[in-house]
Specification:
Order of helices and strands of chain B: EEEEEEEEEEE
Low-confidence stretches of chain A: none
Number of helices of chain B: 0
Low-confidence stretches of chain B: none
Strand content of chain B: over 45%
Structural class of chain A: mainly beta
Mean pLDDT of chain A: 91
Largest interface: A-B, 26 and 29 residues
Number of strands of chain B: 11
Number of strands of chain A: 11
Order of helices and strands of chain A: EEEEEEEEEEE
Largest sheet of chain A: 6 strands, mixed
Distance between the termini of chain A: 41 Å
Mean pLDDT of chain B: 92
Helix content of chain A: under 10%
Oligomer: heterodimer
Number of helices of chain A: 0
Helix content of chain B: under 10%
Chain lengths: 114, 114
């Protein structure tokens, strides 16, 4: 059975801090790993990673994948209160070229205090 | 539309009643997915549509759950004879067809069974 484990489960920091969120996985026939940010409602897409060692970056957020050690990290630098959310990690199998059956971790609840 | 639209946003019903949840995907997205998010749990895959057909229904928890999609667009998820354990947020996502396209989520329907 495919499995995704995120750590820590929750984290409280002050504005300006840098945080690292972790995601480890076990999946049959891995294709990709995705990160989402969930505030009140819809998870919003952040990154999709398919290759090891290539960092993806968007503003203060960045992520990298290690396919040998089966994990990914999501870094947020200079955190702001608007970064407070649940960050979800998901993995997708390679099923006929489709990414459809994502397996999600339980998420990391990040709280950024002013 | 601009994003994935789900209705209703909230539904409260009595145990034993049937409910129907609706999802309107992003225009042009041929792939559509249903997930369930229960308190303290990660998102759980339910079913996937490519066009109007559902190649994988393996995530549906029981035969009380069914889903259909018509015209390659709107999908409905139906739960018959609801039980209290069906209480959850039901999330719909859509994506472009093709390898490795990320899924984009709607705000979900919060279902509460009394």
């Amino acid at each position: 059975e495919d499995k995704v484990v995120q750590s820590p489960l929750s984290l409280v920091v002050h504005e300006g801090d840098t945080v690292t969120l972790n995601c480890s996985y076990e999946v049959t026939n891995f294709r990709s790993l995705l990160w989402y940010k969930q505030e009140k409602k819809a998870p919003t897409f952040l990154f999709m990673l398919t290759s090891s060692g290539i960092e993806k970056k968007s503003g203060r957020l960045s992520s990298i994948l290690d396919k040998k050690e089966l994990f990914s990290i999501l870094n947020i630098t200079a955190t702001q209160t608007g970064d407070s959310a649940v960050y979800l990690c998901a993995v997708g199998p390679n099923s006929g070229g489709s990414n459809y059956k994502l397996t999600f971790g339980k998420g990391t609840l990040l709280t950024v205090n002013p | 539309g601009a994003g994935v639209s789900q209705s209703p946003s909230n539904k409260v019903t009595e145990k034993g009643k049937d409910v129907e949840l609706r999802c309107d995907p992003i225009s042009g997205h041929t792939a559509l997915y249903w997930y369930r998010q229960s308190l303290g749990q990660g998102l759980e895959f339910l079913i996937y549509f490519q066009g109007n057909s559902a190649p994988d229904k393996s995530g549906l928890p029981s035969d009380r759950f069914s889903a259909e999609r018509t015209g390659g667009s709107v999908s409905t998820l139906t739960i018959q004879r609801t039980q209290q354990e069906d209480s959850a947020v039901y999330l719909c996502a859509s994506s472009l067809a093709g390898q490795g396209e990320p899924q984009h989520f709607g705000d979900g329907t919060r279902l509460s069974i009394l």
